[in-house]
Amino acid sequence: MNSTITYKWSLIGSVISLLVAVLISIIGSISQAGPFFIIFFLLLAFGVRGYPSVKGLSFTISILAVVTTAMYYPFLFDKINNFELALLITPLIQIIMFGMGSSMGLGDFVELLRRPKSVIVGVASQFTIMPVIGYILASISQFPSEISAGLILLGTAPTSVTASLFCYLAKANVALAITITAITTLLAPFLLPLMMKIFAGGFIEINVLDMMWGMIQIIIIPIGAGLLFNHFLSGKAKWLDNAMPVVSMVGVAFIVAIIIAAGRESLLNIGFFLLFIVTVHNILGYIAGYWVGRWFRLDERDYRAIAISTGMQNAGLASGIAKVMEKIATVGLAPAVCGPIMGFTASIVASYWSHSTVENKDPEEEMIKGEKEQYV
Predict the structure, then answer these.
(1) How far is Cα 64 from Cα 295, in angstroms, rounded to an integer?
(2) According to the model, what pLDDT value does residue 375 have?
(3) What is the pLDDT of residues 124-135, one digit of tens each?
């Protein structure tokens, strides 16, 4: 009972903070309203945790608090005693990839053998649909070349590690989402640099081999270490299993803060339009993935999983690649703003599907059955 009251007061406090922030922005200056906007998002993030229907938005709202803080106080995420915080991005990505590897095993790849069609469609959708959409949007948006390249980089990124969570909420095929995430992530060091050369080569210079080696360092090696850890020490380090999700979330939030702070000036100039374009990219991914799954006559749980897996990019990894390219303040902007947008839209999709029934019948079997009934 007390916790329920706490959540309610937190929501009330968030509304009051927002009203104060808006009032200060109107009668004074929006530059002075920063603390109240930050408090609004923090209280809102805590308050929604008391309501199951919107609890999944808590992390996304927390990221918005981080983004707001980075926009108002960029110096907090620049340097500490002459140490550049941007140098932490690569090791943070490596830790997150290690966590992914430590949670995987050979069983996660059994789905590939059991139902290869769904996996192949999902992986192919990720590496064809999203890069093409990213390239088209980058070409028509007329962003500066490096920011356009960042949008394409986002499109070529593998599936987000959080896709399986939203698939679970959406009553989709979680095992399929995990398999697609694992395979696209493992293929990324080899396919992503080539796709960047093809789609982004007209915007910025792409060194395929350097990018490939950088990605091997931040993906293959940490995931391989995680797989070995899982194989030899599975169940023997419960503290690590419990800590990794928290470490991953904090790591993603910190990466976003560093990138937003570094690219603050660019965001102030083109921010809203970039947000709009990244949102369009994300939503078109859901729609295209959904209809590709239906076109290949997969069952509903499968094409729900493919829709979510296709639309959700590993924005944190894309940010790490931007750091490898030494263009974190420009190429890294689209991946940075994608995080909160993707979490918000995926929550809506998952919430909608969570309240709808799932037809588990195989469409191909139903078609064959229907054809047979015509001749009876």
Answers:
(1) 36
(2) 32
(3) 999 999 999 999
Report which DSSP code applies to 261.
H
Written as six digits, the tokens of 4 are 């329920």
Query: What is the average per-residue pLDDT within 143-159?
Result: 90
State how far Cα 59 lies from the chain centre.
12
Q: Which two tokens stand for residue 209?
A: 């081999």
Q: Where are the beta strands (DSSP E) in 258-311?
A: none
pLDDT at 231 over 50: yes
> 121, 296 in Cβ contact below 8 A?
yes
Q: For residue 100, is pLDDT > 80?
A: no
Residue 80: enclosing H or E segment and its boundaries? strand 79-80
The class of domain 82-367 in CATH terms is mainly alpha
Can you give the pTM of this predicted structure?
Answer: 0.75
Q: What is the CA radius of gyration of the chain?
A: 21
**DSSP-assigned states of every residue in 171-202:** T--HHHHHHHHHHHHHHHHHHHHHHHHHHHTT
What would the pLDDT profile of 234-262 be if each residue is shown by its tens digit?
A: 666 677 667 777 777 788 778 778 877 87
Biggest CA-to-CA distance, the chain: 81
Cα separation, 176 vs 302, in Å, equals: 7
pLDDT reported for residue 51: 85
| pLDDT of residue 367 exceeding 50 | no
Q: What are the residues whose beta carbons fall under 8 Å from the beta carbon of 103, sequence distance 6 or more?
A: 226, 230, 241, 244
Domain extent listing, the chain: 1-81, 82-367
Length of the chain: 376
The phi-psi region of residue 298 (left if phi > 0; otherwise alpha if psi is between -120 and 50; otherwise beta) is beta
User: In the structure encoding, which two tokens stand for residue 24, read together?
Assistant: 């200060």
Query: Do the strands 79-80 and 83-84 form a parallel or antiparallel pair, or are they unpaired?
Result: antiparallel
Q: Do residues 104 and 228 lie in contact, with contact meaning Cβ atoms separated by under 8 Å? A: no
The token duo for 371 is 């054809």
Segments of 81-142 assigned E as strands: 83-84
The string of pLDDT tens digits covering residues 318-327 is 888 888 888 8
